[in-house]
């Protein structure tokens, strides 16, 4: 990529990244606000999990349809639509507390789920058009940086959600985030390139499902990878920290924020961890090798909790190790999907892949509340280990030599 070509691409990359960062802050904060606020109102873990049911279901639908819309209309339009829908979702939660019924909150979360996955699919897909085919090393670094920084900011969002809930209350926090995101949307309308990601040939609706074997296998592995995380992280862990360990809102939010920030930092360094210094670009074998050690972490945590080991030590140390390994696995997947995806209509393949990602989150979220309420945190961790075993088994079928390593 020459210097004249690089500068416009870099400007678009920074615009996409800034857009994604702003959205991610509100998304992380909103999730923490909902979990902590409704737990304080007396909702059970399963009821809290059900508040996110539509968020994940509509995320699945959005990734599938959003990839098709992005290829037809352009990724700038789908990204800006995601921002505006998130503003609408936040505004729905500004009603008085007695009106915050389960159905109303689920509807707002459904809108937020559509917004999040439109924004995420658009941001990830756009990178394919900002890097030339012969610069796969640059693509890997840009993907890792975007994904890692996003997750670090999601962690900041967790902390922000707990802090804003303590300082401004639920409605004050939601109102402040809606106003800030509205300003970002206005700026994005002027800064994003108009034809970004628009396919030369209009894809048909029947082309929604991926026809690529590599994309299908990677999507299946992604489903169980994220199910393994969310089955204990989304509902079970924050409720466990508050109810069983007696932590305050800001302590729960701050701890989970620190974990996600560290996770994002490791994710941004994944190219160096997986062999960039040796000139190695990852393939399916790399994904398999990093999936295997991750299985042992939740299994060992569950065993230690069952043996009566101090839960604070198990959770803090285990979560740190899990975060490092999970971050590398997630970054590898994020690179491989863009490497496998076809360039014309890349958002179709990326949308299908993130549909599987959203499906994994859905299974994980529902199971997190249900299993924790019935059996506790250790049972959630055993299920997580089982999901990771499936991830490793599926990863064995990933292509060992993709075009990037040729």
Overview of the molecule:
The protein has 406 residues and is an all-alpha fold. Helix content is 80%, strand content 0%. The chain has one domain (3-195, 202-405): Up-down Bundle (Growth Hormone, Chain: A), CATH 1.20.1250.20. Helix 1 runs antiparallel to helix 2, helix 3 packs antiparallel against helix 14 (346-375) and helix 12 (284-306) packs antiparallel against helix 15 (377-395). The longest helix has 38 residues, at 3-40. It starts with a helix and ends in an 11-residue tail after the last helix.
Give a short synopsis of this structure.
80% of the residues lie in helices and 0% in strands. It has 406 residues and is mostly helical.
* Proportion of beta-strand residues: under 5%
Q: Looking at CATH, which topology would you report?
A: Growth Hormone, Chain: A
Output the number of helix runs.
15
Order of helices and strands: HHHHHHHHHHHHHHH
Task: Give the N-to-C terminal Cα separation.
Answer: 19 Å
Count the E strands: 0
Task: Tell me roughly what share of residues is in helical segments.
Answer: over 70%
CATH architecture: Up-down Bundle
CATH superfamily: MFS general substrate transporter like domains
- The number of domains is 1
Q: Evaluate the radius of gyration.
A: 20 Å
The rough form would be described as: globular
């Amino acid at each position: 990529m020459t210097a004249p070509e690089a500068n416009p691409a870099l400007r678009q990359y920074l615009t996409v990244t800034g857009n994604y960062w702003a959205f991610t802050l509100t998304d992380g904060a909103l999730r923490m606000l909902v979990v902590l606020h409704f737990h304080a109102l007396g909702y059970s873990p399963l009821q809290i999990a059900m508040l996110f049911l539509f968020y994940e279901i509509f995320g699945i639908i959005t990734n599938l349809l959003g990839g098709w819309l992005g290829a037809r209309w352009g990724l700038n339009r789908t990204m800006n639509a995601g921002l505006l829908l998130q503003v609408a979702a936040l505004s729905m939660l500004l009603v008085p507390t007695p009106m915050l019924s389960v159905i109303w909150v689920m509807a707002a979360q459904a809108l937020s789920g559509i917004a999040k996955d439109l924004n995420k699919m658009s941001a990830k897909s756009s990178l394919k058009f900002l890097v030339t085919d012969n610069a796969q090393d640059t693509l890997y670094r840009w993907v890792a940086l975007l994904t890692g920084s996003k997750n670090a900011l999601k962690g900041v969002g967790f902390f922000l959600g707990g802090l804003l809930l303590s300082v401004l209350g639920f409605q004050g926090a939601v109102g402040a985030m809606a106003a800030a995101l509205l300003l970002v949307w206005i700026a994005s309308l002027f800064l994003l390139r108009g034809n970004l990601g628009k396919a030369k040939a209009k894809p048909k609706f029947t082309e929604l499902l991926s026809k690529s074997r590599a994309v299908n296998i990677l999507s299946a592995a992604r489903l169980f990878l994220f199910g393994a995380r969310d089955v204990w992280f989304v509902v079970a862990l924050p409720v466990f920290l508050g109810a069983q360990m007696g932590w305050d809102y800001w302590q729960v939010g701050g701890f989970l924020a620190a974990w996600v920030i560290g996770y994002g930092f490791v994710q941004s360094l994944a190219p160096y961890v997986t062999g960039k210094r040796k000139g190695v670009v990852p393939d399916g074998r790399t994904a398999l090798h990093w999936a295997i050690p991750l299985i042992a972490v939740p299994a060992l945590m569950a065993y230690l909790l069952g043996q009566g080991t101090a839960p604070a030590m198990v959770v803090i140390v285990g979560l740190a190790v899990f975060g490092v390994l999970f971050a590398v696995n997630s970054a590898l997947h994020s690179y491989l999907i863009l490497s496998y995806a076809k360039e014309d209509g890349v958002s179709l393949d990326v949308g299908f892949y993130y549909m599987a990602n959203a499906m994994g989150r859905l299974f994980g979220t529902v199971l997190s509340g249900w299993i924790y309420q019935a059996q506790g945190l250790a049972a959630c961790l055993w299920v997580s280990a089982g999901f990771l075993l499936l991830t490793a088994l599926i990863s064995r079928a990933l292509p060992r030599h993709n075009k990037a390593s040729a």
